[in-house]
Amino acid sequence: MPELIHAAFPGRLVIVGFGSIGQGVLPLIRRHVALPPDRITIITAEKRGRSVAAEYGVRFVETPLTRENYRAVLDTVLGPGDFLLNVSVDVSSLALIEFCQERGALYLDTCIEPWPGGYTDPGLSPAARSNYALRESALALRSRSPDGPTAVITHGANPGLVSHFVKQALVDLAAAGTAIPADRDGWGRLAEAIGVKAIHIAERDTQVAALPKLPGEFVNTWSIDGFFSEGSQPAELGWGTHERHFPADGREHAAGSRAAIYLLRPGAATRVRSWTPLEGPYLGFLITHGESISIADYLTVHDGGQARYRPTCHYAYHPCDDAVLSLHELGGKNWELQTRKRLIVDEITAGIDELGVLLMGSSRGVYWYGSRLSIEEARRAVPHNNATSLQVTAAVLAGIVWAIENPRRGIVEPDEMDYARVLEIAGPYLGEMVGVWGDWTPLQDRERLFPEDLDRDDPWQFKNIRVV
Question: Which of 14, 100, 153, 445 is least surrounded by Cβ atoms within 10 Å, i.e. has the fewest?
């Protein structure tokens, strides 16, 4: 892989959290950002990763950040012109964003994380535990410093990279001679003109390890704590203007963009039908993710103050097979996380992560655009990564470079960034990038065994997609 320097950064970099993503992105930062190792500090709650930090000659501080100490700890290492990369769990993104805005430091995270309990505290309402609420809280900070230091929120693989995939897919689907939209309204009108009714973040992870999942353990190819947290939140989806059937356990939000709804059930207990080119039809989990809300909101077309057009948008995730077994066991234990956790990286023997966006509604069929990355390709490209983590870390690298190049943009979502620049940086690490047409619909082969209550007039209704 060529060691092209994408940006020079004169400040200091602080990495908060050093799990699979922190360890995986460090070699990419050292390869593509001109930044001496003595200006990088890792602050993490765990000792894991210490050897990786030593390998790259960066400072490693084992100190959990809490509500009480985060300002005191960060005061010593972060100042004007520096960069805070937040890839932690159980550390409030809002608190860190506010701190960076005050200090004049750049910021990037891969999801909007609350303090401990914010995802699962039964004392909070489902709406308060939603990604919708977290996003609204983050966007509310914009008014304090609209031209402040850039803070890129939710820029991993998904949320993050997939927002850029959507734009590339829309360009692919546009009629010959159509100009690339210059603003948010233009992207929404393009999606409307194409006839996009639904967008799935359609992902199938087939990576396998030599040792299969054992009883009483949770196995996954990326952060187990992160997956458990988001799987425990309410299922959420951007809600399209074409929808006619409201879910029985669906709820709307009382304030904000109102571009999304949530269901009164965990995302890890909600399955949806979807499709990827290599897997074909599959049942995925409707795990809540920020992109389900931000993409739907970004592509909304308003007319007279009312939403005239918006696609339904949600995640349809089929994790590695061991993670599916882990979720099955987790649900059987009433969502009490297993005591043993195993993040598989080095022990993976085969498999790919097929991650993309599935655009549905066009008269030409469905169109999937995304990344096919194998474990072998990931290992050849960058150390300390598997296929899943590299799709995230490549996006983190691209977001860091974009923020350095655009240092005074305030709080920014992936949908508002230059999609072509992000894909230019991340693309070399994403394996095979493809756009594939298909003739699948959620009604394909339905009612084979029993009658179902379907809406055959419009296969893209969420009623036709949801599986209880």
Answer: 445
